[in-house]
Amino acid sequence: MSSFENLMAFQRETEALAQIAGRLGWDQETVMPRGASEQRAEEMAAIDSVLHARRTDPKVANWLETAEAQTSVEQAQLREIRRAFDRYTKVPPDLSAEIARTTSRAQGIWAAARAEEDVSAFLPTLKTVVDLKRQEGAALAGGGAVYDAMLDDYEPGATAQMLEQMFGALRPRLVDLRDRIFEAAPGPELTGTFVEEDQLALSTRLAEVFGYDFQRGRIDKAVHPFSSGSGDDVRITTRTNATDPFNCFYSTIHEVGHAAYEQGIDPAYAMTPLGRGASMGVHESQSRIYENQLGRSQAFTGWLYGQMTDRFGSLSISGPEAFYAASNRVHRGYIRTEADEVQYNLHVLLRFDLEHRLMTGDLAVEDLEAAWNDRFEADFGFAVDKPSNGVLQDVHWSVGLFGYFPTYTLGNVYAGSLHRALREAVPDLDDRMAQGDLSAATSWLRGAVQQHGALMLPREVIAQATGTAPSEAPLLDYLEEKFSALYGL
Q1: Can you tell me the distance from the alpha carbon of 125 to that of 146, in angstroms, rounded to the nearest whole number?
Q2: Is there a domain that residue 436 lies in?
Q3: Is 152 contained in some domain?
Q4: Structural domain includes residue 135
Q5: Which of 90, 118, 146 is the last residue of a domain?
Q6: What average pLDDT does the chain have?
Q7: Nearest to 411 by CA among 286, 253, 260, 290
Q8: Catalytic residue among 255, 262, 284, 472
Q9: Structure confidence at residue 29 as a pLDDT band (50, 70, 90)
Q10: Please, which pLDDT band fits residue 224 given cuts at 50, 70 and 90?
Q11: In angstroms, how far is CA 137 from the centroid of its own chain?
Q12: Less Cβ around it within 10 Å: N or C end of the chain?
């Protein structure tokens, strides 16, 4: 076997072990008994040690030095393996294992503190996580910017400076649009009580409509909806709220966007570095375009209104137009995952700025809650009422995902560009969606984005799919047009 063949055979085994680690994480979030958290932390640390040893194995360095790529796909495989090898060899194995152990344990501590509304019960653990991630970031940065090194894990090529410029361009127009909407008459609101069993049944139907393959996936419940896995085992979770079925439906559609990306990758890339999304920003572009530009469109909500009335009977609002307005209602709220399209990115920008300061040392963990509450009131105009609606609402920091939050807004920006291109490629899109037919949209996204996996770098994926470099302009124009019409601005 050639060096390239040996390297790929070794890599496939590493990828398989990583999938097993991911399955342990899925289990922890869904069905693992609460009393198993300490044991699971040790299990996660053990498998992380095995993975770290494989990812830094000197054989990989030797193969990389002598491997020759014959095709552009092989070149991309080597690029991704080399990038991962460089990263993992910079992080001491003991530190990597301790991060895995601590973040696994921290997840349960965060969940308990959130349930008890007790920030003080979580802060000591968060301080440990932050300290460990700073050490990791410093090792990765090699004297450069620690936060940029963390961003590179989730969005290769992104820097804090680049994001600050893009986010700085987003903020004024988003705030102006939000303020004008709040000066207008409030939109209709769906009220009532909706049986969980029926919510989950319609949630499953929506997953099918958006192309989720249940032969290679499943839906479970979790506190925080997520997608896990790749290839032939891609699982999603959702959640229910008796008085807010939109929470369940759009959480499901969102996670199906992630899952469809993984299920849509060329099978030839399975169990290789290319058999995953290009970045978390590109991943988020799929979930956001599924959820918002498609799932909350006037055409599709007209179809969904019929499904709702068939299953739940008469609703508190009557007619597809009112239902469309209700599903896009701009409202005051604390929770990022429940935020409307206009305000969602303001939630992300808050988190980006705070975690950036945490990683640079400009903000102490002990001062995080006060900083969050002050920033939230300044950005949204009202005070945080309890920690679960504030600093304790997201799981990300407890599991060490620093650098992840900004990819949510990058995903929205990418989705805006993709939506414009999709409309040009499928001119009868609304007619199809009005019949509950998403196949043209999902097929276009599969061909333009999903099938390529990590073959290209993130911005290259979007540029090839749309014909232009990613820009915040299409997203802002889409939001202005949609919500100006909805609220008569």
Answers
A1: 21
A2: yes
A3: no
A4: no
A5: 118
A6: 96
A7: 286
A8: 255
A9: confident
A10: confident
A11: 21
A12: N
d(CA 103, CA 64) in angstroms, rounded, equals 32
Give the structural domain span for 22. 3-118
331-346 residue pLDDT tens = 999 999 889 999 999 9
Hey, CA dihedral for 243, 245, 248, 251, is it positive or negative? negative
- Vertex 417: Cα angle to 416 and 422 (nearest 5): 95
Is a pLDDT exceeding 90 seen at residue 288?
yes
Total Cβ atoms within 10 A of residue 425:
15
255 is catalytic: yes
Of 425, 424, 411, nearest in space to 458 by CA: 411
Does residue 16 share a domain with residue 114? yes
Strand partners, 230: 233
Instruction: Supply the pTM of this predicted model.
Output: 0.93
Residue with token string 């999304």 = 277
pLDDT in tens, 119-137: 999 999 999 999 999 999 9
* Pairwise CA distance, residues 293 & 426, whole Å: 14
CATH number for the domain spanning 220: value is: 1.10.1370.30
Q: In what order do the strands lie in the sheet with 219-221?
A: 219-221, 233-238, 227-230
Sequence-ordered list of residues with C-beta below 8 angstroms from that of 229, at least 6 positions apart, any chain = 19, 22, 23, 26, 217, 235, 262
Here the contacts of 63-68 (C-beta below 8 Å, separation 24 or greater) are: 63/3, 63/4, 63/6, 63/7, 63/10, 64/7, 66/3, 67/2, 67/3, 67/4, 67/7, 68/2, 68/3, 68/4
pLDDT of residue 338: 86
Classify 263 as helix, strand or coil.
helix
Closest to 387 (Cα-Cα) out of 111, 146, 181, 202 = 111
